[in-house]
């Protein structure tokens, strides 16, 4: 025979039930708000390049086509905006795959410094245009073999190094650090001495479409999706993408990776030769 509940116990049960429903409604409301903001951002990101293309094409059709100097410039502008749209679509595609958990990791052993050097090489021209110097922190150059999805980690590194240029300062420095923390984990960090992130925004930079006012002013090509993609990739590896930043001083973005197991390390060395 079950013991009878006292009136007080019944009241507590009802209160707990009501609280649970309230929490559920709160979550639904938040999701709804999130969905609305997402759609608003999305339409804004699409509108800007589409309106620009429309403007250039209409002006050409209305007579500017006759002027060879103008028509080349306008076609170039239109083409840049088409490029921006296609990058946006690619990023959205990638995010939706990542969020549905459809993107599988293909892990292998690789030397993390090799990928950092590749990211530096890919962005060498852009860095030169901004007078930014790339380097490794002292003691970080020695090859560290990690186990992860090489292509995806390369993508993360390119994104972080690209941001260090976009939000860096002229004559600035981008520094890569690699630490083997405890023999099992490797910490990779990309630091810059650029504009930094105001404290109130730091927790928001990984949100989809989030860009600081200052960031928006500096680089019109960005969509605010890069860090959100990076975050998903690192989380799929079982780690977090972290950030430390001070406005006007600079930012450091970093993440951990698994150190390759001993027997795997030898094959990675072989692959490299
Ligand atoms: P995007 O660069 O396309 O705007 P991201 O998702 O890569 O998108 O970055 C989101 C925002 O975070 C940027 O718009 C910028 O405001 C801020 N941010 C990212 N990296 C840095 C950095 N290294 N220094 C300062 N601000 C940064």
Automatic annotation (TrEMBL):
Compartments where located: Cell membrane; Membrane raft
Cellular component aspect of the GO annotation: membrane raft; plasma membrane
Enzyme class, broadest EC rank: transferase
Catalysis performed (reactions): ATP + protein L-histidine = ADP + protein N-phospho-L-histidine
Domain Histidine kinase: 41-261
Membrane topology annotation: Multi-pass membrane protein
GO molecular function: ATP binding; phosphorelay sensor kinase activity
Keyword Transport tagged: no
Keyword Transferase: yes
Keywords: ATP-binding, Cell membrane, Kinase, Membrane, Nucleotide-binding, Phosphoprotein, Transferase, Transmembrane, Transmembrane helix, Two-component regulatory system
EC number: 2.7.13.3
Protein's recorded name: histidine kinase
